[in-house]
């Protein structure tokens, strides 16, 4: 794949703009002082949720192509994944710097002893590895292994949802909606199902 | 250690009675300050309301706070530390207007002074080490925050939407049925409860199990005073409480994952403790729907979910009541649910908390800072097991 000159499809532009809108809202709310009763929790949740949504959208590209033969979306996987990493980084930075105020004794006990935090941190590290190796240079360097490495996106998606589920109290349903969507997306990737869809589409 | 109820009259009684006029109130304050000064040895007063924990110098263990011995003392709350918001004309504002803040401060100092000489609480290996630094001062949480940030799952699990959904909550007429192992079972109208029991104001910390906290001025009366009237029989060992479950008014009841109605319970001695309040108002006004109108429990040394809202039933029993959160997840929420920085929730740390309105986290205090009043209730108990 050779790098072409700047040539964005409208879909790509929409993806970039769409990914930046949550950030714009956050900055706007900070600038205008429009936060809830617990702003730290508010912004932590918002950045975390945005990261999760973008990660799921990135994971949705391939199934969308399988279902609708819409190749353009495949180009969105990288930017959506990178934006997801971007929001996850802010999410983590708020946690360390604002919520825990760099109090490393507390951070250590909160981050390394609690399963939701361990899972969240793992997700972040996976996203970091994927972001670093997302360039064409790394793609060339890693050759076949690149694809293998980037299959970790599935794992990141699963861990991100688990992170959310373990954070909330029992009976709080929000993370389960994400879990349902993720499950659907992963189901569509099962080779047998994928094949069935492609053959059915070829016939009609 | 004082017995529960002992200081009700002397400390909370007149000064916290809302029915007296402001002039009377000031006179009482001044008298009190005078006598307290003279006595120079007194029972704690304001520090009973917002006591704080100060521990001996200790190095913090790496893993947290377990296994260390803490010396618990109360320290007086300085007058500057209780700073009500402008929206709320409090005693203190009133005192300021009257120019007698100094007298008030003297009173507080007089009350607090002997505390330093008090013996440390019984040494209990369950008690964790608090942070080395003294706890930062407590300020009242903004009224708007108190009434717009609520955990009330009968309405919704979204804290910031409860207020809207509870806007039209009908809390009148309302009855509370007191039954079970009592000599005088009775169904009270809320108006009876307001009229028959001395209404006081109590400023308490509220610590949620989700690791955030507030400081709220409640209005209400002690559960003990109600219990005295209904007379629990000698068999009664626990008090069980039940929240209204009205699907017409409470959309959250559709969530079938919870065993409605919400239930809570206290051991009888906890129920009799003078801190245990049946609140009917906050910030001097009737309880809003989202805060548990028209009557709720407030148990300040326990996690917030123990402070059951919109009570319709109070039952005396000899069996430990099944509480809602314990029923759902017994490994995460115990019957006692005492605030304890050394016993983490299995999924998150309880060592620190965020006070709503503040940026920096605070260390969580043992029994939410009320150790002096309640630690004796749990002597000999393994608080890591009875969490």
Give an overview in words.
- The complex is a heterodimer of chains A (204) and B (387).
- Chain A has helices spanning 10-32, 39-68, 77-99, 104-113, 115-132, 136-142, 144-150, 152-167, 174-187, 191-203.
- Chain A is mostly helical and 204 residues long.
- Chain A has one domain (10-203).
- In chain A, helix 1 packs antiparallel against helix 2 and helix 2 packs parallel to helix 9.
- The mean pLDDT of chain A is 90.
- Chain B has 387 residues and is an alpha+beta fold.
- Chain B has 2 domains: 8-117, no CATH class; 143-378, Sulfite Oxidase, Chain A, domain 2, CATH 3.90.420.10.
- In chain B, 23% of the residues lie in helices and 17% in strands.
- Chain B has 12 helices and 12 strands.
- In chain B, strands 3, 4, 7, 8, 9, 11 and 12 form a 7-stranded mixed sheet that branches. Chain B has a 5-stranded mixed sheet with strand order 2-1-10-5-6.
- Chain B is globular, with a radius of gyration of 20 Å.
- Chain A binds chain B through residues 36-38, 40-41, 98-101, 103, 105-106, 108-110, 113-116, 166-167, 169-174, and chain B through 60, 62-64, 144-145, 148-149, 153, 157, 159-160, 210, 212, 255, 257-258, 328-329, 332, 344, 347-349, 351-352, 354, 356, 359-361.
């Amino acid at each position: 794949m050779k790098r072409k000159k700047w040539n964005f499809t409208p879909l790509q532009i929409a993806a970039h703009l769409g990914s930046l809108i949550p950030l714009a809202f956050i900055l706007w709310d900070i600038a205008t002082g429009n936060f809830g009763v617990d702003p730290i929790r508010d912004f932590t949740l918002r950045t975390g949720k945005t990261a999760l949504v973008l990660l799921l959208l990135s994971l949705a590209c391939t199934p969308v192509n399988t279902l609708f033969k819409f190749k353009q979306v495949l180009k969105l996987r990288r930017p959506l994944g990178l934006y997801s990493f971007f929001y996850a980084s802010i999410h983590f930075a708020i946690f360390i710097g604002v919520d825990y105020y760099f109090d490393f004794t507390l951070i250590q006990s909160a981050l390394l002893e609690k399963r939701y935090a361990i899972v969240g941190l793992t997700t972040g590290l996976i996203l970091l590895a994927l972001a670093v190796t997302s360039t064409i240079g790394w793609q060339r360097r890693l050759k076949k292994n690149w694809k293998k490495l980037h299959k970790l996106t599935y794992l990141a998606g699963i861990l991100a949802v688990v992170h959310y589920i373990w954070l909330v109290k029992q009976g709080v349903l929000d993370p389960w909606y994400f879990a349902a969507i993720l499950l659907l997306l992963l189901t569509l990737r099962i080779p047998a199902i994928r094949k069935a869809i492609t053959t059915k589409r070829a016939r009609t | 250690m004082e017995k529960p109820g002992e200081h009700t009259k002397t400390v909370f009684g007149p000064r916290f009675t809302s029915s007296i006029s402001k002039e009377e109130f000031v006179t009482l304050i001044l008298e009190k300050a005078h006598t307290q000064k003279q006595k120079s040895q007194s029972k704690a007063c304001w520090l009973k309301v917002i006591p704080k924990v100060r521990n001996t110098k200790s190095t913090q263990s790496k893993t947290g706070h377990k296994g260390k011995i803490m010396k618990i003392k109360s320290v007086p709350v300085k007058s500057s530390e209780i700073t009500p918001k402008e929206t709320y004309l409090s005693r203190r504002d009133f005192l300021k207007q009257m120019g007698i803040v100094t007298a008030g401060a003297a009173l507080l100092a007089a009350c607090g002074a002997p505390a330093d000489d008090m013996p440390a609480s019984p040494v209990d290996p369950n008690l964790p080490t608090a942070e080395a630094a003294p706890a930062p001062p407590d300020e009242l949480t903004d009224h708007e925050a108190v009434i717009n940030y609520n955990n009330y799952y009968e309405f919704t699990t979204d804290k910031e939407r409860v207020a809207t959904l509870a806007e039209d909550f009908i809390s009148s007429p309302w009855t509370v049925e007191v039954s079970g192992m009592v000599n005088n079972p009775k169904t009270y109208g809320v108006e009876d409860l307001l009229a028959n029991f001395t209404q006081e104001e109590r400023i308490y910390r509220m610590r949620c199990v989700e690791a955030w906290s507030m400081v709220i001025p409640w209005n209400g009366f002690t559960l003990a005073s109600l219990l005295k009237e209904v007379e629990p029989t000698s068999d009664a060992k626990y008090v069980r409480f039940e929240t209204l479950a009205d699907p017409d008014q409470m959309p959250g009841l559709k969530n079938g994952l919870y065993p409605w109605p919400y239930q809570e319970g206290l051991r009888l001695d906890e129920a009799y403790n003078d801190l245990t309040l049946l609140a009917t108002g906050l910030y001097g006004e009737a309880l809003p729907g989202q805060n548990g109108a028209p009557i709720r429990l407030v148990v300040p040394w326990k996690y917030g979910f123990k402070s059951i809202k919109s009570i319709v039933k109070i039952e005396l029993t000899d069996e430990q009541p099944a509480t809602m959160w314990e029923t759902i997840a017994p490994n995460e929420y115990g019957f006692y649910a005492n605030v304890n920085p050394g016993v983490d929730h299995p999924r998150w740390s309880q060592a620190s908390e965020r006070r709503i309105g503040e940026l920096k986290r605070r260390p969580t205090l043992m029994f939410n800072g009320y150790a002096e009043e309640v630690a004796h209730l749990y002597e000999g108990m393994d608080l890591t097991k009875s969490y």
